[in-house]
Amino acid sequence: xxxxxxxxxxxxxxxxxxxxxxxxxxxxxxxxxxxxxxxxxxxxxxxxxxxxxxxxxxxxxxxxxxxxxxxxxxxxxxxxxxxxxxxxxxxxxxxxxxxxxxxxxxxxxxxxxxxxxxxxxxxxxxxxxxxxxxxx
Length: 136
Fold this sequence. Notes:
By secondary structure, the protein is α+β, with helices and mostly antiparallel strands. The chain has helices at residues 17-34, 74-77, 128-133; strands spanning 36-41, 46-53, 59-64, 68-72, 80-85, 89-91, 99-107, 110-119.
């Protein structure tokens, strides 16, 4: 285990135990030198804000529901694309934990992961009187 990453090597058909150990050492060294754990998003990370229609607060902060860590080469690390899908506006009321959107993580044409984006806190709907008072 190095750099918070664990690799497993399986060598079949080696001529001897020492040959198998050499190949295992070579393979693991190559793996640790060429790959690393890349944190993409962490649970609870702020992803943005969504405007609320008729909310007693104008917007709600939205957070990632899960953690994503990928094992990638340095070249692949530069090619990761995160696409955040959030509505421009959402109708109030909103309960804490309500799914507000998705974060899609891709590498080239391959979809690696999808994370739900949730409301940080509950926000009630304005009453008619409160809405009228926003115009004055």
